[in-house]
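RECORD TYPE: inverse folding
INPUT: C-alpha cells
STRUCTURE:
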C-alpha cells in the first residue's frame, strides 16, 4: 500500500452572486492511500496482467476499480449468466473489503454495467439478496463490455452504512 499524506489544509470558501451557486467550497484531501492489490487478488491480477490499483482511498472514502464475476484461477467469466457473474463479482469485492478490514456493510455506491439491459431483473435480485437496508446508492447502465455480462464498481466508506 502506498500512502500520500497531504498537508492539513482547511477548506477554502468563496461566495458568488450566481443564484444557482451561492457558496463554493474547495476541498483538499488530508490523506490518499493507494491499494495496488490485496493478498487474495495479487496472484490473479498478476496472472491476468491487470495494471490498475484495486482501490484508492481519499480520506474516509474508498473507490474501487470495476470488475466482472470471473473465476480468479482461469480469468474466465463464471458460467450461469448475469446473476452468477454479479454474485461472483460481489463476492470478490467482499473478499477485497475483508482484506482491507471492511465488509459489504461499508459499500455506499454500486455502479453496474450490463451488456443486456433485459438482465436488470437478475441483477436486481442479486443486489437485494447481497445487500441489506439501508441499501447502497446505485446506478445501472447498458454498456458493451470487454469480458462478461456485467461489470461492477463500488465505492465504500470506512464508516459502515449498516449499523449493527
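DESIGNED SEQUENCE:
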Amino acid at each position: 500500500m502506498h500512502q500520500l499524506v497531504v498537508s492539513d489544509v482547511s477548506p477554502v470558501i468563496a461566495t458568488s452572486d450566481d443564484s444557482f451557486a451561492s457558496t463554493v467550497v474547495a476541498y483538499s484531501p488530508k490523506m490518499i492511500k493507494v491499494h495496488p492489490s490485496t493478498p487474495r487478488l495479487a496472484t490473479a491480477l498478476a496472472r491476468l496482467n491487470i495494471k490498475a490499483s484495486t482501490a484508492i482511498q481519499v480520506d474516509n472514502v474508498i473507490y474501487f476499480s470495476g470488475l466482472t464475476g470471473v473465476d480468479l484461477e482461469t480469468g474466465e467469466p463464471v458460467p450461469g449468466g448475469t446473476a452468477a457473474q454479479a454474485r461472483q463479482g460481489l463476492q470478490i469485492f467482499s473478499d477485497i473489503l475483508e482484506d482491507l478490514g471492511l465488509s459489504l456493510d461499508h459499500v455506499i455506491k454500486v455502479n453496474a454495467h450490463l451488456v443486456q439491459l433485459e438482465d436488470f431483473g437478475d441483477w436486481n435480485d442479486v443486489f437485494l439478496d447481497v445487500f441489506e437496508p439501508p441499501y447502497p446508492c446505485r446506478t445501472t447502465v447498458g454498456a458493451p463490455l470487454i469480458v462478461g455480462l456485467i461489470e461492477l464498481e463500488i465505492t465504500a466508506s470506512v464508516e459502515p452504512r449498516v449499523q449493527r
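NOTES: The chain has a mean pLDDT of 84.
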